Amino acid sequence: ASKALGGNRFAFYSSAMNQRAERRLALEVKLRQAWSDGRFHVHYQPKFDVASLEMVGLEALVRLHDEEEGDIPASEFVPLAEEVGMIKKIDLWVIEKACDEVLSCGGGEVPIKQLSVNISPGHFVGDELYDELASILERTGFPGDYLELEITESVIGTQSTDIHQQLQRIRSLGIEIAIDDFGKDYSSLSRLKQLPLNTLKIDRSFISDVCETQDNATIVSTIILMAHNLNLKVVAEGVETPSQYAFIKQHNCHSFQGYLYAKPMAIEGIVALVKKAGLAS
Ligand code: C2E
Ligand code: MG
Ligand code: MG
Ligand code: MG
């Protein structure tokens, strides 16, 4: 009997593995097809100043609409795009598209204080990123000092010799650097001081139960305090409730994004928000 059970178990695991491999393959095919058909697009999530509630920034987020499945979550296809070597061209396309769309939303001027874009760790392996960014700024006419790159802790965690130099060159274009999902992975705190960084973005997982879990409350208030002491700006991501907002306000977090005030939306939605705020003609 136990042999039969073992056999079944093997069959179960192997079919689960097959399903995962099949899904992965199907998704890779969809990614490649979407790229050649030009079916990626960009959504923008507003960031607000905590004290004034003024809209101060936008985060550009890549979107993939699939005819059969509807929207495929970025959390599912971005890691695969990283694995199969497609993320660099996707990221650069997103940045250029976002620069274009945000500029035209403001009638040729940037209608907000900052546009943030996500950049995968792989971009820092070579040293082409600086040139790529410089030419995007040139092609679009987007002013570098309105752009911010969101990088992950894994990038600053590497003891890679040239990461400091790469970030410095990028900063020389006026572009600012934020650490995304801060606190989620290991980060060398001494690197935060050494590297030319501007902003820490507190990971959504700490914000989501900041009011229920004392540990998370401690982590969030400590990160905010540390950012103030290191002269970094600090952003809370994933603010969904008034009590989460009240918490970060009480602890003097600078800005936030989250479903409480605005979900990611197409540029048309941003145009309407900018008009409403009276920032564009
Ligand atoms: P991220 O950079 O940390 O982006 C924030 C994510 O949190 C977005 O998910 C956003 O929609 C979501 N979010 C914002 N506020 C809330 C909230 O109040 N509640 C909840 N539940 N979620 C909230 P999204 O767009 O699905 O992106 C997931 C991740 O995919 C991003 O996390 C980022 O790591 C990656 N990603 C997205 N676009 C790009 C891109 O153009 N390039 C690269 N390399 N990665 C990207
Ligand atoms: Mg981000
Ligand atoms: Mg984030
Ligand atoms: Mg996140």
TrEMBL record:
Organism: Halioglobus maricola
EAL domain sequence ranges: 24-278
Protein name according to UniProt: EAL domain-containing protein
